[in-house]
Design a protein that fits this description.
The protein has 120 residues and is an alpha+beta fold. It has one domain. It is 40% helix and 27% strand. The protein contains 3 helices and 5 strands. Keywords: Membrane, Transmembrane, Transmembrane helix.
């Protein structure tokens, strides 16, 4: 049972051919995704050195699974289609699912909504 108010954790898994995680190219993509998605929070890695370094990890947390999951479908689909081999992991409560295609994302959204409807 997935409560409507439960948070969603979304992890963007880069393709093997993606730029390195802390490259300006990849970080720009993560910032754009974050801007469009409207996440409550995102995880970042910071190196403790003079030169600094680090950045967002592609892990986002959203409030209220029931209201944001459908809206995330198109944004996640755009990110996956941008480069072959990308995928995402969606964690709601103790349930973790993975998708490699837009179709899989849409199927996951339908399944989550079905579970939510049954739990009302």
């Amino acid at each position: 049972m997935i409560p409507m108010h439960e948070d969603i954790e979304l992890i963007l898994v880069p393709a093997p051919s993606d730029a390195p995680p802390f490259s300006s190219e990849y970080q720009t993509e993560l910032r754009e995704f974050a801007k469009q998605a409207g996440a409550r929070s995102q995880r970042a890695f910071v190196m403790d050195s003079i030169s600094g370094g680090g950045g967002p990890l592609g892990e986002f947390i959203f409030d209220n699974a029931g209201t944001v999951i459908v809206a995330l479908t198109s944004i996640c689909g755009i990110w996956i289609r941008a480069k072959y081999g990308r995928k995402l992991k969606l964690k709601v409560g103790k349930i973790v699912v993975e998708a490699n295609t837009t179709e899989e994302i849409e199927l996951l959204v339908k399944q989550v909504k079905t579970i939510q409807d049954k739990s009302k």
